[in-house]
TrEMBL record:
It comes from Paenibacillus yonginensis. PANTHER family: ABC TRANSPORTER PERMEASE PROTEIN MG189-RELATED (PTHR43744:SF12), ABC TRANSPORTER PERMEASE PROTEIN MG189-RELATED-RELATED (PTHR43744). Belongs to the binding-protein-dependent transport system permease family. GO terms for biological process: transmembrane transport. The keyword Transmembrane applies. One of its GO terms (cellular component) is plasma membrane. InterPro entries: MetI-like (IPR000515), MetI-like_sf (IPR035906). It is a multi-pass membrane protein. The chain crosses the membrane at residues 12-33, 76-95, 107-128, 140-163, 184-209, 245-264. Residues 72-264 form the ABC transmembrane type-1 domain. This is Sugar ABC transporter permease.
Length: 279
């Protein structure tokens, strides 16, 4: 009986701690959502209070000010194309490195993984110069190519660990049945990678959708290529900060990716755990 009571008390304490931690992490969303319906004066006076009057026209003003359909389209195209490319290229690369563990492939894997420790800020100037020389700066496909380069290392690392958990006997049986090497990967191996594929999709979508630095470097003043994060910065000037418009913009911008994350987040733990255990 004492053990059962102690267990219940300890469980209650853990649940309370978990609830408090969840509230802590959710508090930024509360401030963004609540203050998005206030005027600027009310936000500056008390940002934590409930709105005295819900100003729904804040959202319509933001929609027109940043041309939301355009910036949403740009962010959507960049994110979708970059994520699909990262998943396809990194999965194929990881599969080759795992199934062909030659000395060269081991060195190549080490070099690719080592690239993750290079700070982005240290290559910013060189990136601008190279993209200008190649004439891909100021184009959507230029931004997508750069995201492919910066995102492949981590995704390949996750795929590399997960592919080790795929039984080699399944592939050998497919080869005996007359399946080609590409057929083995796309028809047999790739469907088995679903958990880690979803994990990579989620992680890269969250990163690319919310990224500000790379697009602002490569857009080159072209307003037609503005993304959501760059569009929202229009409300922050040197002397004025239009929080009453910036916060509705943030709410609109993060809504699609939050919905996307809630639908797929259950795969994150499964994918990363499987990859790390077998890696």
């Amino acid at each position: 009986m004492e053990t059962r009571e102690r267990y219940k008390v300890s469980t209650l304490i853990l649940e309370i701690a978990a609830i408090l931690l969840a509230l802590l992490f959710l508090s930024p969303f509360y401030f963004v959502l609540v203050n998005s319906f206030k005027n600027l004066g009310e936000i500056l006076i008390d940002a934590a209070s409930w709105p005295k009057q819900f100003l729904w026209d804040n959202y319509s003003k933001v929609w027109d000010a940043i041309n939301f359909p355009l910036v949403f389209r740009n962010s959507f195209i960049i994110t979708i194309c970059s994520v699909i490319g990262i998943v396809i290229i990194s999965s194929m690369t990881a599969y080759r490195l795992v199934r062909r563990p030659t000395v060269f492939n081991k060195i190549l894997f080490t070099v690719l993984i080592s690239s993750m420790i290079i700070p982005f800020q240290s290559v910013m100037l060189q990136l601008v110069r190279i993209t200008s020389l190649l004439e891909i700066r100021g184009h959507l496909y230029g931004i997508i190519i750069c995201y492919l380069g910066f995102g492949l290392a981590l995704s390949m690392f996750l795929f590399h660990g997960f592919i080790k958990s795929v039984p080699l006997e399944i592939e050998e049986a497919a080869v005996v049945d007359g399946c080609s090497p590409y057929g083995v990967f796309w028809k047999i191996v790739f469907p088995l990678l679903t958990p880690i594929i979803v994990t990579n999709i989620i992680l890269n979508t969250l990163w690319i959708w919310n990224d500000y630095l790379l697009p602002v470097l490569l857009i080159g003043g072209n307003n037609d290529l503005t993304t959501i994060p760059i569009g929202i910065t229009k409300f922050f000037g040197q002397y004025t900060k239009q929080w009453n418009l910036a916060l509705p913009g943030l709410a609109i911008g993060i809504a699609p990716v939050i919905i996307f994350f809630l639908f797929l987040q259950k795969y994150i733990v499964e994918g990363i755990t499987a990859g790390s255990v077998k890696g």
